[in-house]
Amino acid sequence: LVLLKDGSVFAFGRGRDGQLGTGATRNGQGMIPALTDVVAIAAGMWHSAAVRTDGSVWLWGNDLKSQLCDGASTNRSVPTRVESLPLGATATHVAAGGHSTLIRLSDGTLLGCGDNQFSPLGADQPAVVATASPVGSPSGSDVRRIAWHSSKIAGPAARWIAPSTPPPPSS
Fold this sequence. Notes:
This protein is an all-beta fold. The protein is built from no helices and eleven strands.
């Protein structure tokens, strides 16, 4: 996903599960027509996410483990608004993992949905969290940013220090 200066989003890559958000379920590229005024994006392994200027959260792609926070477990090929946020809540950030989603609200609260097999969404949550639900976090409003790990990186890429740092030369 690429967030452009005007708040629109360009998607490219694998799209079998609708994670490109263009309405197609095949690999490709294109603008996501249903998405405007975006301030934050996240690309998970099987789904994608965005936060708009109004604080709403939009998710699309694979929903095998309810990572789209709608309780439906139905794949979506276009962005769908998360309706399970608390009334009046506004999001500032979103992170997408393999089959889970984290949402940071403006008051610092963390919400999550999706696969909770190894308790990433909290030990007191069920194995699958179907809608956006509170996630334990350190000091609530002290949370500034969120990120989500979804897969193991092997080979030369595993030695990268940061995405903007090129890998070391091959030996």
